[in-house]
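Example record for the data management plan.
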Amino acid sequence: MVRLNQENIEEFIRENKDKFNVYIPPVSHMDRILFKLNNRIKHIINIVPYLFRVAIATALIFTSSIIIWNNFIRKDRHEITLKHKILIVSSNIRAIIK
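Corresponding structural encoding:
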């Protein structure tokens, strides 16, 4: 049994070079390869549904965190707001004018 190493393989290819160029692939060969490659790439790159899911989850988390912060965590939620202060001052001014 002959062990093949890189030199033996290169020598074999050089000696039999004319035997390697006999087969010509069919015309549709490249089309089949490109079709399979295109399908494989489409399968790998199609992440749009996952991006929609991430966007929806992000929007829900953001909205719920704002609602929770505004209703439960905010320190000044029991204090008077600027809108109420303006209403009180304007009603006091009206009472003084009358």
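Summary line stored alongside the record: The mean pLDDT is 84.
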